[in-house]
Amino acid sequence: MFFKQPNGIIFAIKLETEIVQKSIYKNNFRFMKILICISKTPDTTSKIAFTDNNSKFSTDGVQWIINPYDEWYALVRAIEIKEADPSTILHLINVGGVESEPIIRKALALGGEEAIRVNSDVADSYFVASQIAQIAKEGNYDLIFTGKETIDYNGSSIGGMIAECLDIPFISHAVKFDIVNGNAVVVREIEGGEEIDSAPFPLVVSCQKGMAEQRIPNMKGIMGSRTKPLKVVEPVEISALTSVVSFDLPPAKAGVKLISADHPEELVRLLNEEAKAI
Amino acid sequence: MSVLIFIDIAEGKIKKASYEAASYGAAIAQQLGASANAIVLGKSDELLSLGNYGISKVYNLSNESLHHFDAQVFTKLIADANETIGADIFVFSNTTTGKSIAPRLSVRLKAGLVSGAVALPDTSNGFVVKKSVFSGKAFAHIAINSANKIIALNPNSFSVVKTEGVAEIIDLNLSIPAGKVAVQSVNKIIGDVPLSEADIVVSGGRGLKGPENWGIVTDLAKLLGAATACSRPVSDIHWRPHHEHVGQTGLAIAPNLYIAIGISGAIQHLAGVNRSKTIVVINKDPEAPFFKAADYGIVGDAFEVVPKMIDAIKKLKESV
Ligand SMILES: Cc1cc2nc3c(=O)[nH]c(=O)nc-3n(C[C@H](O)[C@H](O)[C@H](O)COP(=O)(O)OP(=O)(O)OC[C@H]3O[C@@H](n4cnc5c(N)ncnc54)[C@H](O)[C@@H]3O)c2cc1C
Hints:
The complex is a heterodimer. By secondary structure, chain A is an alpha/beta fold.
């Protein structure tokens, strides 16, 4: 919207999200609404240890980050879509307790108009996906982005579950995403190659490397993120289907057998005769 | 009670990971005194071979249109087929196809899902599946508490078991719903051995100094019938394609043999490769952290060591 100041200078103000949402249909053109799923994971250098009889991940001294696939690929690609078409609406969603809020703010510092936090502990992926599907249904989103997996539970299942809850298509492992003539065109990685798919909206896509380049939030983004709406909603009642019994760590390696750099043929012999690997 | 294994085919050929899933599903069935059956969506003339992996019945919907993958369609077909098959345990391989269908089927059948399984379930007290977590840095034991259960097995985590059985092929008669996803093209560009299924992986890091030096990696890989991989910075600076990036934020793999050349062994790299059975590290820095995670190592210059290794392997191959 443009305003003319008394001194004659014209300046623009950004439309408030609320107004944008109300005017979602303009000349029969519906603004694209994107929901980006944001998960909180331990930093990649965190010490992996367990407590309570090995039944819980030890959060002692753990730094929390936005799951890299969600941040680097899903969120940044969504921001790029909005940069190309500023009418696009970007909302972030996280299922988690209040301790998720720092990483939600960090995501908002990169982009997105508002975030929704479903206020609940995470029971299992079915529970999380059902909560997100509920919000997605109410909010009438066209596109839902997830990361290809979280780096802690490596489930790779939230996106597919959301899609089934909503009975809409799901394209996994996207390395490229574009909107062409109102349809999504997605390049997805498959074993030993790539596949190019197209699908109508609404749609769920899980994102991985190739989709976008990691960004660092700037000062303006960080300042702005503090005042962006972060809505807290209560979960719908869903029973989890699975539960964690315990964790364990892989057995330690016996120790490396060092072979002289002058005798690589000795390594080859050991790989053949001892390890039976070649 | 019965086990239904989803068998993934490409150009009519059954994938290696699907044979592992078949053997795994058959072992679960044996453990529970149940039968193990398979479902194949699409046309393949290899279906009878599933009898050699413990499968009793192969339910097949042989239709050309299924060669284009749409997870929504496949999920519905499996659920519809199961109305008559009546399985309650479903096994997938944890590949891009399995990861697309298994979560959907989980919602559809209200079946608890464990993806990334690495061992047979413990059924002594409930149904508990061991899976890889933290990109291979740890394992979790997850109980599936619902009546229907789904397991997606990590590739290279369960050895195929050959049996003498004979499979019976049963044609499914199902109407195929119209899919919304149109597959425009499939490009198999990545080489012969898909990284996730490869038995041997040769991987290069920043120590190789530049993409022009990758010849020693690809030569060694070719000689061993191996897939090639790389560390994250190598793919970030476009020395190698993204799909070769292994580690916590790339692909997690578990080959029989992983050969790391000029890779320091940062914690995020180790996360994706430490489930490899045998790890060989070639690095000129004796302090490189990778040596702590390795089975065999050579402290030396890759540009001298690797060509000598290649010669030694050639000699070995000639001698057998
Ligand atoms: C959030 C996050 C996620 C990450 N995820 C991943 C991931 O998924 N995968 C990943 O790989 N990394 C990941 N990283 C990066 C990781 O921390 C390391 O920076 C990276 O693995 C280092 O790559 P490199 O070993 O190739 O390079 P370097 O660390 O530069 O090591 C090069 C090695 O080559 C050796 N060398 C040099 N010259 C020679 C020679 N002539 N002969 C033999 N050896 C030689 C050196 O001694 C050195 O050890 C991640 C980092 C972060 C912060």
